[in-house]
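User: Structure tokens for both sequences below?

Assistant:
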Amino acid sequence: MAFMVGIDTGGTFTDGFFTRDGDLRTAKVLTTPHDLTVCLADCVREGAQQFGVSVQDMLADTEVVRYSTTVSVNTIIQRTGAKIGLLVSKGFRDSLYSSSTKEVEPIFSFIAKDMTTEVDEEIDNHGKIVKPLDIDDVISKMQYLTDMGARAIVVSLNNSDINPVHEKQIRAIIKEQSPSFFLGSTRVLLASDISDQPNAFYRTNAAVLNGYIHDSMVRYLYRAEDDLRANLYTRPLMIGHSHGGIARVAKTRAIDTYSSGPVAGVAGAALVAKVHGFTNAVSADVGGTSLDIGLVRDGVYDYSLTPVISDLPVSVPMLVTHSVGQGGGSIVSLTSSGGIQIGPRSAGANPGPACFDRGGLEATVTDADVVLGYIDPNYFLGGRIKLNKDKAISVIKRRVADRLGTSVEEAAYLIKETVDKNIQKELLQFLQTKGIEPGRLNNLALVAYGGAGPTHCSGFVKGLKFGKVLTSPYASTFCAFGFSTTDLLHRYSKYEQITLFDGVAYFADYERINQAVRQMLEVARRDIKGEGFSPDDAVYYLELIGDEDLGEHRVRSNQTRLSSEKEVKNLCAQFERVKKSGVPKITISAIMLNALVAMPHFELNPGPLSGEDPDHALRGERDVLWSPESGYQKTPIYEREPLVPGNRVVGPAIIQAKDTTYVIPANRSFYISEYSHGVLEEV
């Protein structure tokens, strides 16, 4: 059977998940920020070595390579995107279609105000051309923006969601004036190609961000695909999208990749929770750089039609994750009042935490974990990277302990306690925004992963009563594992307010919806063919998105057309349970068509249970600081890989794996489920 490869490039590490005929291997290498194709190649090489084959032999026999990258996130965070120009309709240069000047401010960190100009045209809110496009005006404005150094021009005109004819005309004019046989044609990116959302401000934000990161994504992803092909891979490189699916590079818009790694983690968490009996799950990915939180309810991912990226609401539907700078590499500093602050800055992969011995001069959470005895300096990444404990001690003493007037051990423990409390606070706040109170967690599984997830899980779930607390045997490569559960997916939307039930009668104009769906189906079938698959092999299904009164709740229908009142009643019944009290109407704000082609998946299969005795995995003892009062205590150390379903490790104990460490305090046990996942239980 052929190989499957999933790779996720994060800010600190690049993770790989490789499978062949049910056999799996994981790989973890340092991310190379200067050139992400290097760490991609390193990860592929490491995966091939795990199977004892050459890179060429593995890739020649690989059925699919799924890939996610932080290029878009890093470009936005670091503000290193392309210099772009923006054309808007006359009268909207300052407002960018927003009613609030304060709301507009964040966009100017991506595009300078003098790189925005207006074109003289008008289309009304019915799509009728009121004022034709002035071609000479367009040429003049294009010349101005290119003279100002624009590498690409974004066009976002008022009412282009209804009629994009002027946007398309502008693209044709610019292409004619800037042909590719010169030094290179000017790239033109249209807001109407990004979204048909009626809010022009959201549409403009999405178009600007897409234009800002477009160059770096195009250069990098095509190069990555070329490198794979040079090593005998014959299929398209499949890119992770923020909606939870994958698509080839040529069918990927830059903004589609935003936060695709964390999104894949949520997909993996949904599967892990499901096989353990839970359709509701919260995912907590504690990586090297950040904490990413996601939610699954009734087996459905939590989506937003207008997610926020860097304080900008955008009209690109995405699976929602909440990210904050609380990871293993998060830098520790002191507040003005003498308290501990964790993050949001991170040491990243280069130079990394001080204990990496690569020049890091700041104290991090990982340094504290080394000082406390959680992490064995000689067994980091299975011993492939040797950590310098003396450097960790020195930096915590200099940066934290001496300034607080405490011992190094007390300072390290305070760092650990602070990050655990921060993560718990973020989890609870996130869940409360979704209407889930701290006292109602018993039907919710928490899935903790990321390199630092199992290390800090016992701390950040302290006092919380989740239905089950789960960790994964591939915790630190979990997002790469999550990709092994994803399919090729294209999503299409039609934003239109339709009242399905007005309090008396049900919606009966079925053709209004069916016509919109037919138009989307035509595009979907064309795109699936462009992916190299038969359109008849795809599964097509609808999602109706409730309005604000329904909290943008999504209802799925496997039908692609409406034909009876019974079908409308069934849809309304699904919306009824989330409808706010006192609201008689059921109104949708958008129709989405999903076109899915099933891809090969890695399956989680149960195995036989053995006895609880874990002694075959015992590897000795180590001094671990469980509290400053008790001091260091001799603590049993277990190895994760030999533990099998049915085994139970009772705390206090440390379980070390080749890519993470599980910290089990005295009041907890760690049970291996029939699916080989760890279940953290109270004793």
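Moving on to the next sequence.
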Amino acid sequence: MQTSNYLPHIDGLRALAVLAVIFFHLDIALFQGGYVGVDVFFVISGFLITGLLRKELEKNGSLDLKRFYLRRMRRLMPALLVTLSLTFLFSALIFSPVHFQRIGGALSASILSVSNFYFWLEADYFDVGANLKPFLHTWSLSVEEQFYLFWPLMLLVCHRFGGRMLTLIYLLLMFFLSIVLNLIFYDGHSQFVSDHIPALADFIINGKSTLFFLLPFRLFEFAIGAVLVWVATKKIDYKIIEEVLFLVGIGLILYSVLYFDESLIFPYWNALVPCIGAAFVIISGPSTVSGSILRNPAIVGVGLISYSLYLVHWPIIVFSNYLFGELSIVFKIFIFTLAFVLAFMLYRFVETPFRNTFEYKKPAFSVGVALVPVILFSAGLHAHISSGWKWRVGDPVVTLDDVDDSKAFHREYYGGSGYPLYGPVREDSDPDIIVMGDSHGRHYAEGISRVISEPNDQNLFIAAGTSCFHLPSFTRKTEGKKWDKICPDRLNKALRYIENAKRAPLVILSHDWNYQMSVAGRLKNGSLERENVSPDQVVSGVLELAKLIGDAKLVVIGNVPGAGHNLYDVFTRPRPLIFSDFDPDDFLFHSRNAELESTNLKLEEAALRTGEFSFIDPFKYLCTENQCRNVDEQKRLLYSDASHLSKYGSVYLVEAIKGDLLQLLDRS
């Protein structure tokens, strides 16, 4: 085993971890599990920090906690503060008030090392996407800083009252307790919390986010690294065992990176795979022949700048996505290169000087550490409580109604807002029209109610809103909810409305067809088939539904074109001088989406071929030959976000298809 304090293979492992994270964030197809790089970092932190603390405890019998925390600040804060400052300033130039308001809150939370709580509390259905949160990656830094806060204290207590044995018992206890908490809270429900702390129950309902963002559910990863401090001192007698451990460790990490994806509940037990892999690499890497790949100077160099690289890469990706939309492979290569250039500069001119030259006792460092965070925290808080500095925005070119932000606009003006998920719109009487599907079915509620149901005295029932196919034998294969029960139950509820109707109703079925195909699974003999669902299988499901509803007439509405962007956000962006060529008029229309149209064509062909259902293609009413409209004639937004019809869009489209629907109702 290597005896020097510096372990180059650790920097090599850092390089592997940070590259996995970057490729994941760049949405490189092979690296959909690249987020496990963060878990590798947590194992490394547990190993290194515990090693430093153990060494000091065995040498002095105590810990200089003030010195420990100041060293951590000197190591982490300078580069973090520079990144936070520049990211916040650039965000002020480009982000609309609603997003800049959240960015301000995230900045203040990052300064306090609680951004993981901030993003955890934000995670709901109407939460904005990750690509609009330039500080999102600071959640892991907050988790690590919270770990630094209590870990030395607990090790000190264990050392004083029980020595090595109590310390190891404590580490094992933290490991098992963290795993158990993952198993208890993964589904968003804890009977103990519901019974004894009911006020907390609503906060943990999103089990996936709870596990992902909060330290207790990550603690076993740090504990794995910490245990290695004692394991790594044991000499492995046979070199072949070291080689096998290293190769297995690298294999486990690469397996996680290549085969995991965002559908997994994480960390849960899934994180044991990359974490055990990291542990094997840490204990075997210093002296194996295979480990030379991580000790290579080029790989070690990437590891040395990995902290700065982690800090800068995500804001660059967020800004690029926000300004330019979907990124080409060439643009991704440019982002990757730019991230390395900026990371090297941050490492060379900020990280290294503060770590090696500036002593924490010097007034310049002390004043800077105290003053800069206060300024940043205050600026972030002001942006948050003042609704995102609206003074940066000029007069909008579209009608935005009297709504404060895009999240509120989506809540209030989504086409299904104010309508039931399942039930009658007016009264519990015999249904004439039943709308089925996910949220892309429910967004027709406003249009059908105002244009068809009310003027023609037709009773409208809604059976739409649950995010899965309302088709026989279909479910979702994603983790987090009991979809195998939820999806069939929602379908059966809709079918009961149809069966109980005194006369055959008109059934309108619509989904976000392409998205649902990407997450759908099929149930066969009670077992889930996890293979990707094809358009032909969806067509078969629609035909099976047509048989189940008997004499009721089925009309299927295809994919809407979508807006391509969150329109409210686009039309409330600031107009800074450096982006003077930004023209909001360019967003009144957008190009056609070939993938969505392809699915619509499949459904239309099946309708014409079988005659079992009617089909309506929204593209025919919202698009010309080359582009699709995002606003109506009064310049009101047709979409409440990037893909859901607004109330205006719902009415606009239903007005266009009114003749077809009335004919099917025999009310023309």
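User: Anything stand out in the second?

Assistant: DSSP finds 27 helices and eleven strands in the chain.
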